[in-house]
Amino acid sequence: MTTRNLILEKSRELFFKKGYIETSLSEIAKECNISKGGLYYYFERKEDLYIETITSILEENGKAVLSCIEKESCFENAIFEFIEQAILIRNRYFSKYGKGEEKTVYFGPFSDAIKKFPKIWEFNNNIYENAIDKLVNRIILAQEMGEVKKELDPHTLAIHFCSIFEGLPLVSYYTNKKFDDKARMVIGSFWELIKN
Fold it and tell me: Domain HTH tetR-type, which positions (predicted)?
């Protein structure tokens, strides 16, 4: 692993455990077993490191879930695989950074980053616009194949799907139900409503 990748990996751990404000560059350098000057060689400011850390996570997660939409399988399989990817991503953050707190809503660090740094908001917005476009195209194809009701507006369905995806952690938290089970149940109900 390169020093730069090690810095990003350790930054990810510390930023998620402690947050942006509570994490220092000295602490990250110590975790990487390099000097603070060595850290500055790769990142001039903590803000730069934070932005790259969060955008790399968003990009990684975006690619994982978008790959489901882009697969050449039936639409039902694609959306259920999408949710399984969302479950894997969420569980990854719980197991690594959640400190065993099952009820924690893991999106907190992402929400904070998106609010605080316009570059992260813009990056995330581009991911979402891309995802919605791909989802709309996939829904149109599913309608042409007779999988999804033709009378439903593809763009509205894509927005509904994204809203479900984003709302699931909160629904799970507030209803005190296991995220995995709730996610599968809700997407199953969504599919029953839109299928032809």
Answer: 1-61
